[in-house]
Amino acid sequence: MNTLTFAETTTVFLLSPWKPILICAVFFAWGWVVSTHLEKDASDAHLNVVKWNSIHLGAAFLALAIMLFGVNFYVALPVGFVVLLAPILAYWKVRNSAVSAQHQFKLRTGSFKAAREKRKTAKTNKQVTMKFEGPNGPMKVPDKDDPNIGVYLAVEELISDALKHRASRTDIRLTQSGCQSKYLVDGVSNNQEPIVADLGAKVVAFIKEIAGTDPKDVRRLQTGEFDISSASGTTHVDLTASGSSSAYVLRLDFDRAERVLRTWESIGLMPKQRELLDQLKQPELRHGVVLFGGQSQSGLTTTSYSILSQHDSYLNNIVTLEKQVLATLEGITHNTADDDNYATQLQTVIRRDPEVILAADLTDAEAAKIVSKPGKEGPLIFVSMRATSMSDLLSKWAGLVSNPRQSFEGLQAVVYQKLVRKLCENCRVSYKPSPDLAKQGLPIDTVEQLYRKGGTIEHKNKTNPCPICEGLGYIGQIGVFETLFLDNETRKYLIAGDLKGALTNARRSKRLIRLQDAGWKIVAEGQTSLEEFGRVSKKKDSKKTKKSATKS
Question: Which of 46, 251, 273, 445 could form a disulfide linkage to 269, CB 3.0–4.6 angstroms apart?
Fold first, then answer.
């Protein structure tokens, strides 16, 4: 009779009981991240959910096989974990390249809420999230028992709120009744919570002290700068302070030098407009005057710097005269102008015989006459002026020079511009244009669809704010340009005082591109909406317009 041994009747565990628990724990964590975070985020950012889910599942099968069949479990487990982690890191990198810098390294909009809650908690515990450093060194953080901690936190809250919304600048206005601040996002102002006058005065003095200016001086124009360090990075701030009998105003520009510098191709000029302006780089055409005009905050400095960068600063002597130098271009000599001696400084610049000159913010008649005098025998001079339209720009120029022939004999081109907000490509909404738009003169038969702002996205039958533009529907700005390139016939009309005839002749000879035509082009391309172009096209100063019409 055969006898069974104990070993033959006992079940043998070939795998330790706790090893499957470890594997399950790893896959549970992986599944939670992919299903609750990455899948939603990929859908929000339009990153092909099916493709990424397939990559994650493929990595999961491979990782499981490695963990189960690896010779050494202690080696197989971490190797399998790395295999699971690799697609997540790859997604992270691809996702970051598809979103704005402000939203990088964030996997879902919930993390923004968590960051806000964390900041609130930090403030409650009298902890700061920002550090300030100016010309006099880092600003010491007050102790939690120091009364100045309230001022420090108020400054931090004011600035962090602006930066969180991609603000380009913040204006702080202090009066006897209180302190009101507002920040500018893509050319649109947004009011912040008002501050009582006493705390507002301390906030203003604190910011001025950081920037290295005198907090006690409330009359003279002062400028300063400082840096802000936080978890999101470093931001450079340029401060301008000025006062009057009724209010004291601080202006804080964030990363100003970076914002004003744009490439020639990205500022919004149409290819035909760039082509005609590029011709002025030729030595035989590099003379005379080119007028740039626009209203406040219309991007004149950006356009001026952009066109200067097209001229070779190593082969040509390029000089600027600016009331405030916002950024420096390599190889170009930047000069800061004095309001009282602008014309004298400009004359000195021209006498040094440069090939290209930028005369920015020109306002006085003497300077205009100096610019127009060299004509076709002198350098190429770009002149920027404030104006409300192309006609207003030409009229102001003629009025300053006060000699029709001298005004237009050497005038090469005129550029008038406005800024519009760009539609967020992640949430913009397409629609078929209504036939009624054709009655307004719009060539809707040339496009199949237009776009309007969205601001929200749909995910699993739920509407969420767009994570790219934070629900605004717009992100960034682009220029819309009206350009006039003068020929001899157009000059004759202008010298004779016939502005309407000059513009008609230029349009007939295809040397005038109207603002409406340029605006329609970027609307048709889906870069902006009809509503946005209509908003910036409205004449803001109706009273002045009526006065001018009455006088004429």
Answer: 273
